TrEMBL record:
It catalyses: (7,8-dihydropterin-6-yl)methyl diphosphate + 4-aminobenzoate = 7,8-dihydropteroate + diphosphate. GO terms for biological process: folic acid biosynthetic process; tetrahydrofolate biosynthetic process. It comes from the Bacteria. Gene3D superfamilies: Dihydropteroate synthase-like (3.20.20.20). It is an enzyme of class 2 (transferase). GO terms for molecular function: dihydropteroate synthase activity; metal ion binding. Keywords: Folate biosynthesis, Magnesium, Metal-binding, Transferase. This is Dihydropteroate synthase.
Length: 397
């Protein structure tokens, strides 16, 4: 037995570890690093002339580019699948920046995606003088529903003291963030009015603001966001991705508050089919990001959420977890909210109260595939799973 085996290298850190173990010289390591990491990038709807040029240039650099058959005769447009090492992409980008047909701008987009895939950590500047670091460990966001009709714990924490006690319990169990919601967004619920939402959550926010807790508020409403931020909240978790209340972006910019922008085809574009699941969601999240930045919220203050359960089929939800790392292309931390959701129940044939193991599996898989924050009901169990998964993910041997 000789021990020959395949190795899978996903980033520069892993490549460096392998090269150092081999005993390569420091200059050799730096030279080989860009050749050791292989990336596949999918470009959407590229005009045929541009697609042809991209294919020719990538082939010339030793990489590959797959295009539709019609590109050869210069008809229409095509998606392009690029296959190459980081070094080949470097050479491609340099050449595309000199080409016509909008390829300079496209080259910059490719460059930004590749940089985003290497970035791992950063921090969010919170209102009221706090900072939240991400990327060093998976952050646990504990769910606190102050509602009568949420799908898993509706009615349990309507009393302010009970809600605060549960928040403190989740913090003790390892929650880094408490996400307070006052209006259920489940598919068959009636959305509470803003006045009722505020009546439910403001007393809780005021009390939690006196504790050493980072507070997120699950709301899409500008007025609710304005009031809870004034009372001590730190993050706004918007299920509408700034599309349900067009004044919210301005409030976020005013407070410079971090925002979770979630993709949603339950309340928005209901029933609209996906032509390319990942690409469609990334495009729509990009629009939400552009809206936030145009209003004055820095890109560095944005978190993205692919929106499991919000207008996706059971299979599509599973596919999003499997391909979560694709969303790293947007260059922002990723929040994953799978806890106890219907797609878990339908996969396993289980009711809400029996979905713990399925939820924990989604937490582990999500973390391995790029989640920075997991939003969960079961904090103690999820914290342990996250710690173990982080230890495995960050082990370079």
């Amino acid at each position: 037995m000789n021990g020959h085996h395949a190795v899978f290298i996903s980033n520069r850190d892993e490549a460096r570890g392998f090269l150092e173990k081999i005993g390569a010289s420091p200059p050799g390591i730096e030279y080989m690093l860009p050749k050791a990491v292989f990336r596949c990038l999918k470009l959407k709807d590229i005009p045929s002339r541009a697609a042809n040029l991209i294919k020719q240039e990538m082939l010339a650099k030793g990489g590959e580019a797959a295009v539709a058959k019609n590109v050869a005769v210069g008809e229409g447009s095509s998606d392009v699948l690029l296959l190459g090492t980081l070094r080949q992409y470097q050479l491609l980008i340099e050449k595309l920046k000199l080409q016509p047909f909008g390829l300079r701008a496209l080259a910059e987009e490719i460059e930004n995606i590749l940089l985003a895939l290497e970035n791992k950590s950063g921090n969010l500047k919170l209102p009221h003088g706090r900072v939240l670091e991400f990327g060093q460990k998976t952050l646990i966001m504990g769910i606190l529903n102050v509602t009568p009709d949420s799908f898993t714990d509706g009615g349990r924490y309507l009393n302010t003291d009970a809600a605060v006690a549960h928040a403190l319990e989740m913090k003790a169990e390892g929650a880094d963030i408490i996400d307070v919601g006052g209006a259920s967004s489940r598919p068959d619920s009636t959305m509470a009015a803003a006045e009722e939402e505020l009546k439910r959550i403001l007393p809780v926010i005021k009390k939690l603001a006196q504790e050493d807790i980072i507070i997120s508020v699950d709301t899409f409403r500008a007025e609710v966001a304005r009031q809870v931020l004034a009372e001590g909240a730190h993050i706004i978790n918007d299920i509408g991705g700034l599309q349900l209340d067009h004044e919210l972006a301005g409030v976020l910019a005013e407070w410079q508050s971090p925002a979770v922008l979630m993709h949603n085809r339950l309340q928005l574009n209901q029933g609209q089919p996906y032509f390319d699941l990942i690409a469609d969601i990334i495009a729509e999240l990009s629009n939400s990001i552009d809206t936030a930045v145009a209003a004055g919220l820095p890109l560095e203050q944005i978190i993205i959420d692919p929106g499991l359960g919000f207008g996706k089929s059971v299979a599509e939800n599973r596919l999003l977890i499997k391909n979560l790392q694709d969303f790293k292309s947007l260059g922002r931390p990723i929040l994953l909210g799978a806890s106890r959701k219907a797609f878990i129940g339908r996969t396993l044939g289980l009711e809400v109260e029996e979905r713990l193991e399925g939820s924990l599996a989604a937490v582990a898989l999500g973390i391995m595939n790029g989640a920075d924050i997991v939003r969960v009901h079961d904090v103690k169990q999820s914290k342990r799973v996250a710690q173990m998964t982080d230890a495995v993910r960050n082990e370079y041997g």
